[in-house]
UniProtKB/TrEMBL annotation:
SUPFAM superfamilies: NAD(P)-binding Rossmann-fold domains
Keyword Oxidoreductase: yes
E.C. code: 1.1.1.47
Enzyme class label: oxidoreductase
Any Pfam family matching the protein: adh_short_C2
Descriptive protein name: Glucose 1-dehydrogenase
Keyword annotations from UniProtKB, A to Z: Oxidoreductase
GO MF annotation, one: glucose 1-dehydrogenase [NAD(P)+] activity
PANTHER family, per the entry: 3-OXOACYL-[ACYL-CARRIER-PROTEIN] REDUCTASE, CHLOROPLASTIC, SHORT-CHAIN DEHYDROGENASES/REDUCTASES FAMILY MEMBER
Top-rank taxon, per record: Bacteria
Gene3D superfamilies attached to this UniProt entry: NAD(P)-binding Rossmann-like Domain (3.40.50.720)
Length: 266
């Protein structure tokens, strides 16, 4: 029997990158997958892939910056598949890569909304349905950028640190409902990676060399199995954890200081 047979999973931002990789991995294990994606073309394409790989896919147009849209995606999962077992809060809206002093309040608000608030809304909407099923699995996303204080990502780092706090709080409180809540801190070859690789010759090779494992991660084959572990009964006694899935990049870390920023400014 497939590991996620008869399980219903909602994945935000599943139209590409890591979200799509997880959707494909879940499909191979027989899951019903709600592809909660803002881009209709990529969302429908992922849902079709889910069907082709042995799962049941449903595209639901979802804007994670809008509470009603997030809640509607959860309700669509229940209406179409009869319940909800797994919630993967993957989507976020990136902002411009600029220094902290150049980040605007609007950038901060949009980043916080698409990460912390979106996860909060989805989790609270999913809770009654998971309780009705006798338990559930929530997977949130953190980032190594928080640990290294990545330059030009101040709003993102702030938001992802908040996601860790939310993950730990929910894990502490919702264990009584047999709901586990964990986070993944991944690095993988998603859309942004391929864009950088195309624009910067040698980027992919340098990125691989930074990792102890000597290669860059694949969304489906490297990140997907970690998500599958946290979504399946194999992790029934694991909650409140942040799992690094980055080929060991968190061990050496990395220096993200832009070359054009002086060491000292007054």
């Amino acid at each position: 029997m497939a590991m996620l047979e008869n399980k219903v999973a909602l994945i935000t931002g599943a139209g590409g990158g890591i979200g799509q990789g997880i959707a494909r991995r879940f499909a191979r294990e027989g899951a019903c997958v709600i592809v909660a994606e803002i881009d209709e073309a990529t969302g429908r394409a992922t849902a079709e892939q889910v069907n082709e790989l042995g799962g049941k896919g449903l595209f639901v147009a979802t804007d994670v910056t809008d509470k009603a849209s997030v809640e509607a995606a959860v309700e669509a999962a229940v209406e179409h598949f009869g319940g909800l077992d797994i919630l993967v809060n993957n989507a976020f809206v990136p902002s411009a890569n600029v220094l902290l002093e150049d980040k605007t309040d609007e950038m901060l608000e949009r980043t916080l909304t698409s990460t912390v608030k979106a996860s909060w809304w989805a989790m609270r909407a999913a809770l009654p349905h998971m309780k009705q099923r006798g338990g559930g699995k929530v997977i949130n996303f953190c980032s190594i950028d928080v640990e290294v204080g990545a330059w030009l990502h101040a709003d993102y780092n702030t938001a992802k640190a908040g996601v860790v706090g939310l993950t730990r709080s929910a894990a502490a409180e919702w264990g009584r409902f047999n709901i586990t809540v964990n986070a993944i801190a991944p690095t993988a070859m998603g859309a942004t990676f391929h864009k950088f690789a195309k624009e910067n010759p040698g980027f992919a090779e340098r990125a691989a060399a930074m990792r102890p494992m000597g290669r860059c991660g694949d969304p489906e084959h490297d990140i997907g199995p970690a998500a599958l572990f946290l979504a399946s009964d194999l992790s029934c006694y694991v909650t409140g954890e942040t799992l690094h899935v980055d080929g060991g990049l968190h061990l050496p870390g990395y220096n993200s200081r832009p070359e054009n920023v002086p060491v000292r400014e007054y």
